[in-house]
């Protein structure tokens, strides 16, 4: 290893998971580098909810505080992107800047990208009055006329969940045919008071930079102030694939097989946050990062003791 490019741990991604792992490693006196491409998943949201003591904090502020915290413990952070990675004894990560860094352990905390349905106007309002998670946004949009955009049979479950926050819910079938709804679906929707609206959604109606309605392809407009739309998750798993990590297929993409600490099937290769699973909220991602960081410190300690004995 060279003095400038050799680390005990390189963390790829500086969201909640990556920063949390780096914080634990820095406090454990491990020479750690964090490589951050600056593309957090929750950037469209003005606030994050459900994180005890940080409820309502903006994602940008949360990450800024995290970067300040890891710097106190000597963790290096560079704004760059890992474009290639290989295992050559240690891990070798090639950055977009041309620099190659090496590490004994590698943490992949690259998250995922939310791909929204191609409905005109949807992306522009995402994170405001077009939302995807009632646990993230439900309280803020409670009791408003609400729509749910159905893009798969799983959207029925989403519509049923949303009724905990609003009793005026319409399920726009959009990409789901009426025949795809089971008898149980129809019973539950009726019991929950959800109105089922057949037909394709053609766009959104706004006034004064606020959502006011959902327009169908036949021109019909349904007055709505909130629309839930489930994105398609695209996990950033290319580095894991290049290193030969085993993946598992889920309805929400391919994620690495990991143990309870976050270790993949490749020794020394770890995954945390949304790189390890679709449903990791910010607080869960931070927990995953913490657990991985503590486990890595233990692995390094025991390996060094064994080498020295």
Automatic annotation (TrEMBL):
InterPro entries named among the record's database cross-references: FAD/NAD-bd_sf, FAD/NAD-binding_dom, Ferredoxin-NADP_redctase_2
Entry annotated with the keyword Cell cycle: no
Residues passing through the membrane, by range: 6-25
Keyword vocabulary terms for this entry: Flavoprotein, Membrane, Oxidoreductase, Transmembrane, Transmembrane helix
Top-level taxon: Bacteria
One matching Pfam family: Pyr_redox_2
FAD/NAD(P)-binding domain location: 7-289
Methyltransferase recorded as keyword: no
Chemical reaction(s) catalysed: [thioredoxin]-dithiol + NADP(+) = [thioredoxin]-disulfide + NADPH + H(+)
The protein, known as: Thioredoxin reductase
Species: Streptomyces canarius
